[in-house]
Write a structure and sequence with these properties.
203 residues; alpha/beta; seven-stranded mixed beta sheet; 7 helices; 10 strands; 28% helix
Length: 203
């Protein structure tokens, strides 16, 4: 995905150092990160991660980014239960998503559940961005539609939006894509530029 972002930015003559970003569900600072390449080229942004165990690593390796230990939601300043799983990258506050993950993988176990304060995308954008970020990355395990519906797209128009488009599976999924998200994005005048088998990149 970061190579595709770099291609879009190069064709549109946007310097990598100017590709600001909002990364929802940042997880690790470098590994499997869609924004680390931009950070390495001088761009800066906001990383949101609900798992408190990952925050020190994010703050160390991405110390010029703003790192928020929050849970992205449709409402701010609430406390929600965020379940940490024993498998990297699939922790979630979405009960249905957790059920689907555990149904698909019997080895997926909840290690603990934390109470995490919520924040909306609109609040993040208003507080930390003078203009809309170039890149919005959404990887929040089952809450993608809720978050897309909550964003004020009349006010905020990220150039590139990356969204996970397939359900969790231990097997290779082919020919499956979330049609509701495609329709949400189409209604907001975004076009699917690329699909990587897991994520779609909209512009």
């Amino acid at each position: 995905e970061d190579s595709i972002i770099a291609y879009i930015a190069a064709v549109l003559k946007i310097p990598f150092s100017k590709c600001t970003y909002l990364d929802l569900g940042a997880n690790h600072p470098k590994e499997m990160s869609n924004t680390y390449f931009l950070y390495s080229q001088g761009a800066r942004g906001v990383l949101v991660e609900a798992n408190k165990d990952l925050i020190p690593e994010l703050k160390f390796w991405r110390n010029e980014d703003i790192v928020l230990n929050k849970c992205v939601s449709a409402q701010s300043n609430k406390k929600v239960e965020f379940s940490i799983l024993n498998i990297d990258g699939i922790s979630s506050s979405n009960t249905e998503s957790l059920k689907e993950i555990q149904s698909a993988n019997s080895e997926a176990k909840v290690v603990r559940t934390d109470l995490v304060e919520t924040i909306t995308v609109n609040e993040i954008l208003e507080k930390y961005f003078a203009v809309s970020p170039v890149v919005l990355n959404i990887d929040i395990e089952g809450k993608e539609k809720e978050i897309l519906y909550s964003i004020d797209f009349e006010k905020y128009r990220p150039l590139i939006i990356i969204i996970e488009m397939i359900p969790y599976s231990t097997h290779l999924l082919v020919g499956i894509k979330n049609k509701e998200i495609l329709n949400i994005m189409k209604d907001r005048d975004y076009i699917e530029f690329a699909f990587t088998g897991i994520n779609s990149i909209f512009i």
